[in-house]
Amino acid sequence: MIQIFFNEKYHLELPPKHRFPMDKYRLTKAQLIYEGTFTESNFISPKPATHEQLVTVHDQSYIDKLNSGNLTRHEIRRSGFPYSRDLVLREESITGGTIAATYAAMKESVSFNLAGGTHHAYPDHAEGFCIYNDIAVAARDYLHKFPNNQILVVDLDVHQGNGTAHIFKDEPRVFTFSVHGEKNYPMHKEQSDLDIPLADTTTDRQYLEIVQENLVELIDRVKPDFIYFQSGVDILVNDKLGKVSISMSACRERDMIVFETLYTKGIPVAVSMGGGYADRLRDIVEAHCNTFRVAKHLYE
């Protein structure tokens, strides 16, 4: 059974002017249950990440600032969120969701965190709606238990996973692969192990060829034991924070390429949702639901 980690802490009440589509988490779950793709039994509330897990990636001084609320205006503005204690609890829960999804995927081949993909978070600060780096914390936890294994991070969000690239720049057991908009946030890019910058004019066909060719080549070269898939849907043509113009159908086909490749190779994958900021909330939810639907078709 595919396990999807989610709880109500993932939803956070934000000021009306805030542009982050927080409702997408509850609506994606509701849609997947309504249409019969999954049932309530597939959804599991994760335990929050522990301090011992968080500190393997994040500086103690940064964790202390978050817990005490002792952040500067610049630090709060940089995070993209208004500070609250509920925000910190949310991020601990989301990070715990990706850790839980890691071990569920080892048993069931695929598992989901119905949030996460917070790839802009650095060890000592937040950026771009990312407070803790859930994939990095989960990967460190995995490597603590399996120190001889190899991880491949497949980051297909429209924004480069700069925090993840920075965190693992000197870690040979984690290969970071990012396909992202060349002229999009963050303006200063870090160096992933493999970066594929996309021009604003990238077509559906070009995009899908890039994903397929590089994913297959990397699996053969890196030989990963485990994969983290950041499945952001902010590549869509009507995304307010994206600049590439990929269709809904091509976004779904991208997910098919990833899952079919990993299913055929027998490599377990933990999936984090990543970004999605289309001008219509229903399009964000539909694109995210497609990721779950494709996996359901293959793995169950």
SSE layout and pairing:
Elements: E1 3-5, H1 24-34, E2 43-44, H2 51-54, H3 60-68, H4 73-79, H5 85-108, E3 110-113, H6 134-145, E4 151-155, H7 162-167, E5 174-181, E6 194-198, H8 204-222, E7 226-230, H9 248-265, E8 269-272, H10 281-299
Parallel strand pairs: 1-2, 1-3, 3-8, 4-5, 4-7, 5-6, 7-8
Helix pairs in contact: 1-10, 5-6, 8-9, 9-10
Structure report:
This protein has 300 residues and is α/β, with parallel strands linked by helices. The chain has one domain: Histone deacetylase domain (Arginase, Chain A, 3-Layer(aba) Sandwich), CATH 3.40.800.20. It is built from ten helices and eight strands. It has helices spanning 24-34, 51-54, 60-68, 73-79, 85-108, 134-145, 162-167, 204-222, 248-265, 281-299, and strands at residues 3-5, 43-44, 110-113, 151-155, 174-181, 194-198, 226-230, 269-272. An eight-stranded parallel sheet has the order 2-1-3-8-7-4-5-6, with helices on both faces. Strand 4 (151-155), helix 7 and strand 5 form a beta-alpha-beta unit. Helix 5 crosses helix 6. The radius of gyration is 17 Å and the shape is globular. The N and C termini lie close together (7 Å). The model has no long low-confidence stretch (mean pLDDT 96). GO terms for molecular function: histone deacetylase activity; hydrolase activity. One of its GO terms (biological process) is epigenetic regulation of gene expression. This is Acetoin utilization protein AcuC. InterPro entries: HDAC_classIV, HDACs, His_deacetylse_dom, His_deacetylse_dom_sf, Ureohydrolase_dom_sf. Keywords: Hydrolase.
